[in-house]
């Protein structure tokens, strides 16, 4: 809902989020998230949960459009400064000189081949067809921990300039500030080019600001009339311990000479001060370079002592420095320190005057007492000749509960609009914060345009879609998989697999790793040898050297035997699908519990390695479950992964075409949770076209808990509609051991059926839900089949 309050001079709007009290709407960008376009359109870029939203001012209200969705750095709701800063630092709004709004946001993908993250900058713009994806900007290098800050600015002739940082070594504690790299990118030359600006600290970390831990705005960017870039950053800082940094330096860099060169703007005045924790660079009349910065003096422990707002200008003789203010406006708090100059944004108005919008902060207690709530408000400093005048444009009088983050100002033809993120906290008896609610505040917003703005930019032409049959076979290979297979899990009896024909008779029995092996086996089926009969693919359990063996579906002879992870003795997960669209199914393997989430894909032609990467962060040791199928109907089987035991039911979908072309693991859609994040027993997955629309769907069961069968539409997922359920039901009650799943044409009628089994022993029984009973309205008539009467272990189906 929208709530308006009025001051004598300025109109204030508070956009509240009643459906999600902790706040799902936050700025997308630490600054630049509120701007006027060159044509006068007032726009804002916001995160609404994981959705990037652009809103423009139309007829006295805000008209919003969804730009894109991202799960890399966002959260469903934001109830802490850490969650807010993580998302806000990764997005930016830019208006090019023709008035077109552009949105950028950071993502990253793991490159298992080199053991590093690939930075991806997603670029969207508003065209005559609405908001569309323009491109993914991908540098030709990787970093150990990926990107963590993004700033964007428009240049001449509709060019765009970007800076971002990547972390190579994370900060680990006292005396260690980590290492990173500050990078620059621009399309001013017609295509994207990249350059290194400088080495930096690990700029993904937070520091002790004003009694609370908050990530400072380390970077800022401005572009002059000759299309040269100007940047502020901090190269390093010293971590003292519990109260974080005790010193940092403010640096300036520019490529005006043709190459990037850096110089010091301001160093700490003693060994315990921070000059580089918050700055904003701007280009004034005559391409004059100026910087506003937040300077903090500290105690020897690192606790903040006092602060001031600084203004620096570049002259022929170097930098000049002036203090704008060192006093907050009107706070009456407890015994905590009072600060000013927080998060400055510098801009020049139409008269050529320097203006700085910033926030005050006042702590209720000394930082060491942990009661860190502090108030904040939006203030404006304007330079008139040689004198700074100060005004408070959004005043807050509650020093216990209110904060103000990301203050910004935007101006157009004498109209100045201010915005910020108000944080209202609930505190306990000791005034420690126990909950923080966020809401976007707008001050002095105009009536706006009479109708929603229309872009003259032509729509983006998408690449042609491969024409495929409406009903895809279950396997991407030459033969549909009919019948089913059942494999025994680890136990006291010899591990074996039974393969059944559609009429229920046994086609073959295989003991894949010999009579003495009792470690269990996971299975998949696909026509590897091209004889029209689905072959059996077996992957070993834990306790022996990892093996994958392929058995001829017609003769039961072994036709392949290879070691996917040399030296590895953990269990394996297996799936099959035609990743490279050569007509032969390929084999994907994932590691099991106790190991990093490593995925490899092997060609069905000769079993050479096609891809190798980590599906999740390498520090996760729960393994990774795998499934394959063509979710977006482009002719390439995509790879779907589920997190193993110990993490939430995290689903990632990797574009098969990108993997096949050697472009690395690129996400086809944003990651999501199949069930509640509190379910950490692992996720069982398979993929198949359940509804016959030609798009493979994701079929899942939990590794533990109720037997919740969930099927998500692949067509909806890959077309941007999100996770739309085709089926969501409890397959049976009275069992809390989870659900294992596979998708096959069990009865040979040409339609996909789903096979189910619990995670515990059921005397070898498995469940069949035929296609006729699968969709309307939920699965009915589960047919139980006895495969191993008296079996004391659980089974897998395939």
TrEMBL record:
Domain of life: Bacteria
Pfam family, any one: FG-GAP_3
The UniProt record lists the keyword Glycoprotein: yes
Keywords from the UniProt entry: Glycoprotein, Integrin, Signal
Transmembrane intervals: none
GO cellular component, one term: integrin complex
Keyword Secreted: no
GO BP terms: cell adhesion; integrin-mediated signaling pathway
PANTHER family hit by this protein: ALPHA 1,3 GLUCANASE, GH71 FAMILY (EUROFUNG), SIMILAR TO CYSTEINE PROTEINASE
Designated name of the protein: FG-GAP repeat protein
UniProt organism field: Gemmata massiliana
